Amino acid sequence: xxxxxxxxxxxxxxxALQGQDWPQFLGPARxxxxxxxxxxxxxxxxxxxxxxxxxxxxxxxxxxxxxxKVILFHRIDDKETVECFESKSGDRLWRYDYxxxxxxxxxxxEGPRGTPxxxxxxxxxxxxxxxxxxxxxxxxxxxxxxxARKEFGARKGFFGIACSPLVEGNRVLVEIGGTKAGxxxxxxxxxxxxxxxxxxxxxYSSPTATTIxxxxxxFFFTREGLTALxxxxxxxxxxxxxxPSLDASVxxxxxxxxxxxxxxxxSYGRGAALLRFDERKPIVIWSGxxxxxxxxxxxxxxxxxxxxxxxxxxQGCDLRCVELETGKVMWTAEGFxxxxxxxxxxxLLLLTxxxxxVKAPATAAAFKPAARAQILGLQTRAHPALANxxxxxxxxxxxxxxxxxxxxx
Length: 409
What we know:
This protein has helices at 3-16, 148-152, and strands spanning 33-34, 50-55, 64-66, 69-76, 79-86, 92-99, 117-119, 122-126, 131-136, 142-147, 166-168, 171-175, 183-187, 193-196, 208-212, 215-221, 225-230, 236-241, 256-258, 261-265, 272-276, 283-288, 300-302, 305-310, 318-323, 329-333, 339-344, 347-352, 356-361, 371-374, 385-387, 390-394, 398-403. The protein is mostly beta strands.
């Protein structure tokens, strides 16, 4: 492995060493990694303890957690609803809702898909019809809202608007996908537009941001491919075309940044690419559809290896380990099925679409599951959250809190 890649991995690991909250989509660094060290090494035979379960509304929006509270964004009847619960008990602390008329053209799910973000004492959400909200984290009081469909001509697309807001300093970045703005940044306190890019079609991916060579860069995987921007002012560095040829296709996985490289992956015959950042244009390290083609679940990275799902969800997915630097496939667990993957304490936490939680060492040697537990039902599509040892996950009907923490005897 080159000296460059060792440096990139050290930078990435250092960036991930943040608190044990899970305040946004894919965790503190938006890389699906939990930095806490308080997890139990083994689970009881019957599975880890379930602290609570509760019935919930529609949607694929993931839970997020901070300061001993968990936020869920879902649809109850004809209202998009934000609820705040106490993490350990599941007791509801507050609720905010507003009307929605969103209808899924394919009949899959009519709830929100974008995951909330908690930052600066506020909660930010983006609904299926493009309603952006900023709420007070302590009380649920509305601080501001923006109708992206009305203001920017945000389009419904196949499955509504699905961007998970990204908070960058005093800005909230959202992929709008409108005729008047493709991407927009809003003042975190007021909702005023800070900057926007020209109109463009959105994808179902959410943005990520990182510091590269003293520059704060934001990466958006749009309908057409990867766009690299200055996160502060929206200046475009470049666009990297990466769209499947099939019109009825989507880009859904979030770009994964490792040092100065960006891993971007889609399905539908297009596949994955590893890029090295340069202000003028991206440098392609490798690309292809034979390595790790993510349909919707974002891969994770540890020690120079990627772990994720290869193949389309409806056709059956394999689980894979791929060497980051070369794209070499290290192992494949064929027919594993679709799901999500979280990296925690050197282990993969795999939540399958059938609601099974699987724990396995994150190693390039082989896939060897160490523990399994059935925690949810079918159609478990949303990414989970892991905060202070508590694992929050949802299927179509329930939200569950599972205790994975190491407890004193």
